[in-house]
Amino acid sequence: MPTLMVIVASTRQARIGHTVADWVISAANERADLTVDVADLQEIGLPFFDEAHPPMMGQYELPHTLAWAERVAAADAFLIVSPEYNGSYPGVLKNALDYLLAEWQGKPAGIIGYGAYPESRMIGQLDFVLRNLKLDRTSIDLQVQTPWTMLDNDGKLVAPVELNDTLASMLDELSLAGAEVVAA
């Protein structure tokens, strides 16, 4: 069974990112064909890249890099949940991606963006970086516009049917592609 790493990319103190991610994680955990690993970048706390050698050399020396590399290598697929900040994605996400190279390559990845705008400019920019890291991109991505308007009285995201259907399609695609990674 493939392991799907859900990367929570917001590290702000007051963030809705984990609420959006909880919706994604809940849907993924309901499936019998995926194991879910939640990688909350706020909890992981990677410093700005500080290795002596570039990631392309694969000569990691620092404990936090070795732990991150092991965790990413163990994942078979990725689903990144990221806000859009000023037309792009958070620097902490770029830093986490830039720490490694080989561990990302050849694995499927999808993007779930959220924010105020209906079309996320962040998704296009992040797509470019993921393709440069040689991740295999999903055929669809998902933009959750104004997620703060979709919260119930308990603060849980209650997405409309269209978003749930798109998320299910993304998870189907990531599960199938992740299973191919496991089999390889």
Amount of helix: 25-40%
Strand content: 15-25%
Number of helices: 6
Instruction: Briefly note the structural class of the backbone.
Output: alpha/beta
Number of strands: 6
Radius of gyration: 16 Å
Quaternary status:
single chain
List the uncertain runs: none
What sort of overall outline do the alpha carbons produce when their principal axes are compared? globular
Major β-sheet annotation: 6 strands, parallel
| Helix-strand pattern | EHEHHEHEHEEH
Q: What is the straight-line distance between the termini?
A: 13 Å
Mean pLDDT: 94
Overview of the molecule:
α4 links the parallel β3 and β4. By secondary structure, the chain is an alpha/beta fold. The protein is globular and about 45 Å long. The longest helix has 23 residues, at 161-183. The protein contains 6 helices and 6 strands, in the order βαβααβαβαββα. Strands 1, 2, 3, 4, 5 and 6 form a 6-stranded parallel beta sheet that branches. Helices cover 39% and strands 18% of the residues.
Task: Name some characteristics of this structure.
184 residues; alpha/beta; six-stranded parallel β-sheet; 6 helices; 39% helix
Short description:
With 184 residues, the chain is α/β, with parallel strands linked by helices. It has helices at residues 17-29, 41-44, 63-74, 91-98, 121-132, 161-183, and strands spanning 3-8, 35-40, 77-83, 108-115, 136-137, 142-145.
